[in-house]
Write a structure and sequence with these properties.
By secondary structure, the protein is α/β, with parallel strands linked by helices. Helix content is 40%, strand content 17%. The protein binds one RNA strand of 76 nucleotides through strand 7, strand 14, helix 8, strand 15 and helix 11.
Length: 945
RNA sequence: GCUCUCGUAGCUCAAUCGGUAGAGCGCUCGCCUGAUAAGCGAGAGGCUGGAGGAUCAUAUCCUUCCGGGGGCACCA
């Protein structure tokens, strides 16, 4: 008679480690992907499939390190492309980089003694290029470490000469359609960056301005046009402004044509003051004259005062009184200081009245000789000087400061000015209607994005595309030396494009115009001598043409429109719009079919991340601590439509979830080490109801998860997957089925049945994981036994498989319904066991036997159908259904009793002896003469081993 | 200033047409020691941002306020 302390059981065996060791393992996996060209292979196998192209919005190369928002964006893109690839689409990803523009130029100039003047444009451009390309290397390394797949060997870069050539051709097409023009306009100007800015580059921020009220005395020659009662007095219009420095450029005083203006005799005030009736009180209060005696000498409508002339308060010229509907009664005096050179509205109204344009500041914001005594002063430094001068002239009624929101440069954050200069514009007006139609043909996710961009495009003014800088693509226009007309014909632009294609855009500065133009002459006078345009294009124009320079140029991307643009929601103003505008102008359609946006990353309490607050989460630190997959899991776990929180607590929790997923896989792998599906798979008919239930659930999960992926709702996938692994598998099925796996004879059908279910589960799970946590999925894939992998298709990488599909064979609604009821019963049983445990009556649940009695006979019959399996489901040594009350049925007093929902469960101490092998308490331990401490079941198994 | 949107347990997310607020994780306590730096069980956590209102009934509809985010306007 044998008696051993341990008998062999079928324990899980796997080399798949419990700990991820991401810092090492993820890199190993990435290396294998790179070395064996898995990305390329994944595309190759989908070559003939329908395409799903996500076109990359280029991150800006001002830094070598990406921040968490960029990481989120790239991971989202990668989840989409990996999913689409697995799902059967041809889904290449060509990453891009935005490499021109001010911030890079400024960053480079910071280290240059003497600034811009110290370098030639080409020298400066070479430094910018080197700077951008070195940052590219850093960003690329960051992206690759995240496990993002793409054409890393051949990304697109806006500074690439072929890109530049294509950009010039797009410019040419727009010019050919008459959508480009050069015009004098009052544009937003950054004196710090020394360039014009587009609307997209302007942001509003609080700013403390001056607030002054200034008298404009009516010129003697105009007095006859005043109301009779004041013709013999000294009359002055009172203007209000927040920018004293613009007064040297004043050329007019604007009144609203329909406002009533009053002529006020104010105590101690030599002039009769003219202000809008509706603003009189506000003005008198502000000017500290509320207590003074005030007499209204006359009234007049704005339109009755039109074309009067005033003396400029300190320059020797006249300032004309004009009418404009832009004058409001919200602030000021109803008399608006008008300087066409320093405000878009002033500019427009000035054009109507032919006031001319004065803009006596240079590109750095310093007054020119035209500004008279202020020449040489910077505009902001001139404010107090102007105020002082006004005081000396006796025309200043009031001076104070106040805080309001004011336009700032979104790059350097400094206040902007308006400056009238000649600029190149894209005439949005020319294709606005079509652009709006195209917006409505696009799917915007979330749907609110449609209104956001629609309103912007509907209301925006023409796009100022010229910049007075060196680091960018030149505006490919020449000016005839004879007639000074611009040359931008199809021919001349193609000539430029050809040279750029061959030499890059440095040639613009290195070569003479004749080198480009050869025999091309001026279209107006036939002249052959040209000057070149010195302005470059707005960087938004660069990235705005990627649809042409990348999607249409790279055969592997199969042209516009692509399926998806996916960027932060700020790109409605930026890239989505610039891409749309150029695409509509040139190709008459949007470059994308769907636009998906995400919000911004904030800390755990919802605050913006900032260095000063110290709440910045760095992607590389997350990766160092947890690995790329945990970071990716974070991306998948949040609803990115709104603000996206991240922080220590969240990451710790995500790491827990990651571990749960990992351990689920480990259990699957370990218990399949001796399973060859080709040989051992059990037919569906031979599976137990419980086994079929799990397959049914698996099917439901696949269906739901697929829906979530298709809607880009990854957080639902995350919830569901976590739930499935934790609840359905680990806490339920695995726990129950361990007994069968471990104690049966390895080849017994009931064990093989479980392994059959585990096989399907593993195969499905590993592929569901692949888009989000590719390293984990690959690690699992590589740890599968050869027979398993062979059965699954033999792919060398999980990323070369097909995404799981709903399997009609697995559908078993009956089992689904049946087991969801039984899970409720199990919950009640657990409570009874827990009470017995709390009373120290039992430890392990196998020490107990439970007896159930149902109030509802139908329910009892239902459960009775698997009475023989109930004990294994509850992991007890026995389980019975009583037909009469709690039914003691020969057992002693219950250890505990729990009643809920028409079910009473009584837990008893299990009868019999504990089997040394399966640990169950049975009445037949030792019955087999061979094994004194084994139950009959185990004795049989052991004898067959 | 106008406007849109969001605000559900510590965290991430659920709650079909309004019908007694759910899950997972975390936490606490306990069990197991044949998934073991694992696994299992139970429990405690929410006046659904606040206040009004319509309704038999509201997290869900209306008003208003507070807070987060966005858009437009603020141009003198």
């Amino acid at each position: 008679m044998k008696e051993k302390s341990t008998y062999s059981v079928n324990l899980p065996q796997t080399a798949f480690p419990m700990k991820a060791n991401s810092a090492v393992r993820e890199l190993e996996i990435q290396k294998v992907w790179d070395d064996t060209g898995v990305y390329e292979a994944s595309l190759k196998r989908r070559e003939a499939a329908p395409k799903y192209v996500l076109h990359d919005g280029p991150p800006y190369l001002s830094s070598s390190k990406i921040h968490i928002g960029t990481a989120l964006n790239k991971v989202l893109k990668d989840i989409v492309t990996k999913y689409k690839g697995l799902k059967g689409f041809y889904s290449p990803y060509v990453p891009g980089y935005d490499s021109h523009g001010l911030p890079i130029e400024n960053a480079v100039l910071k280290d240059v003694k003497g600034g811009r003047a110290a370098l030639t444009p080409v020298e400066l451009r070479q430094r910018c290029r080197a700077f951008a390309l070195s940052n590219l290397k850093g960003q690329e390394a960051n992206f690759r470490r995240l496990g993002v797949w793409g054409h890393w060997q051949s990304p697109y870069i806006t500074l690439d000469q072929h890109f530049e050539a294509k950009q010039v051709r797009v410019f040419g097409k727009m010019a050919g359609k008459g959508y480009l023009y050069k015009g004098l306009k009052s544009v937003s100007w950054c004196p710090n960056c020394e360039t014009a800015l587009a609307e997209a580059e302007v942001e509003y921020a609080d700013h403390t301005s001056n607030s002054i009220y200034v008298k404009f005395a009516v010129d003697a020659a105009s007095k006859s046009k005043l109301p009779a009662s004041v013709q013999d007095k000294d009359v002055a219009f009172v203007i209000w402004t927040t920018t004293p420095w613009t007064l040297p450029a004043n050329l007019g005083v604007a009144l609203h044509p329909d406002f009533v203006y009053e002529f006020l005799q104010v105590e101690d005030e030599p002039h009769v003051l003219v202000v809008a009736e509706s603003l009189k009180n506000a003005f008198l209060n502000a000017a500290g004259k509320a207590e003074k005696a005030v007499k209204v000498l006359a009234t007049a409508l704005g339109k009755e005062l039109e074309l009067l002339e005033c003396r400029h308060p300190f320059m020797d010229r006249l300032s004309r009184v004009i009418n404009g509907d832009h004058v409001t009664a919200e602030a000021g005096t109803g008399c608006v200081h008008t300087a066409p050179g320093h405000g878009p509205e002033d500019f427009e109204i000035g054009k109507v009245y032919q006031l001319g344009v004065l803009s006596p500041v240079d590109s750095r914001g310093i007054f020119t000789e035209e500004a008279g005594i202020f020449a040489g002063q910077r505009f902001d430094k001139a404010n107090p000087l102007v105020v002082e001068h006004l005081k000396e002239k006796g025309v200043l009624l009031q001076h104070s400061t106040f805080s309001h929101s004011y336009p700032h440069c979104w790059r350097c954050k400094k206040p902007l000015i308006f400056r009238a200069t000649e600029q190149w514009f894209a005439s949005v007006e020319g294709f606005r209607k079509r652009a709006l139609e195209c917006i409505d043909a696009v799917e915007w996710l979330p749907a609110s994005g449609r209104n956001r961009i629609f309103n912007m495009v509907e209301n925006r003014s023409d796009w100022c595309i010229s910049r007075q800088r060196a680091w960018g693509v030149p505006i490919p226009v020449f000016y005839c030396k004879g007639c000074h007309k611009p040359l931008m014909s199809e021919e001349s632009i193609e000539a430029v494009a050809k040279v750029f294609d061959a030499e890059g855009s440095d040639s613009w500065w290195e070569r003479e115009p004749g080198y480009f133009l050869k025999d091309i002459g001026c279209g107006h006078c036939g002249g052959k001598e040209f000057d070149r345009e010195t302005d470059i294009m707005d960087v938004w124009f660069d990235s705005g043409v990627t649809h042409a320079a990348v999607l249409d140029e790279r055969p592997e991307l199969r042209g516009t429109p692509c399926e998806l643009y996916l960027e932060g929601s700020d790109q409605h103003r930026g890239w989505f719009q610039s891409s749309l505008l150029t695409s509509v102008a040139v190709s008459d359609r949007a470059p994308y079919k769907t636009v998906l946006t995400h919000g911004f990353v904030v800390d755990e309490s919802g605050r913006k991340m900032s260095k000063s607050v110290g709440n910045v989460v760095e992607p590389d630190e997350v990766i160092k601590q947890y690995g790329a997959d945990v970071l990716r899991l974070w991306v998948a776990s949040v609803n990115y439509t709104d603000d996206i929180p991240i922080g220590k607590n969240m990451l710790a929790q995500l790491a827990d979830v990651y571990r749960r997923l990992r351990n689920t896989a480990r259990f699957l792998l370990g218990n399949l080490h001796d399973f060859d599906p080709a040989r051992d798979m059990v037919k569906k008919e031979s599976l137990s109801s419980l086994d079929r239930f799990v397959l049914h659930r698996l099917n439901e999960v696949v269906a739901e998860v697929t829906r979530d992926f298709d809607r880009f709702e990854f957080f639902k996938y995350y919830q569901l997957l976590q739930n499935f692994c934790g609840v359905d598998l680990s806490a339920f099925y695995f726990d129950i089925v361990k007994d069968r796996l471990y104690t049966c004879h390895p080849k017994d059908e009931s064990r093989r049945a479980v392994q059959t279910v585990l096989t399907h589960t593993l195969h499905t799970l590993v592929r569901l994981l692949a888009p989000v946590t590719p390293h984990l999925a690959e690690d699992i894939w590589q740890h599968m036994s050869e027979p398993l992998r062979a059965y699954f298709g033999g792919q060398t990488s999980v990323l070369l498989t097909d995404y799981p599909q709903v399997n009609p064979d697995f559908e078993d609604k009956e089992a689904g319904a049946y087991w969801s009821e039984l899970i409720d019963v199990r919950l009640t049983v657990n409570k009874a066991l827990e009470q017995a445990r709390a009373a120290r009556s039992i430890g392990s649940s196998l020490e107990a036997t439970v007896v159930m009695s149902f109030g509802d006979k139908e329910k009892a019959d239902k459960v009775r159908k698997i009475e023989g399996d109930l004990a294994s489901v509850f992991i007890t040594s026995g389980a019975h259904i009583s037909s009469n009350g709690t039914g003691k049925e020969g057992l002693s007093e219950p250890l505990s009793t729990v009643s809920e929902e028409g079910l009473t469960v009584a837990a008893y101490r299990a009868q019999g002896e504990k089997c040394a092998r399966c640990w169950k308490y049975t009445g037949d331990v030792g019955k087999d003469s061979q094994y004194a401490d084994l139950c009959g079941f185990c004795a049989d198994v052991v004898s067959r081993l």
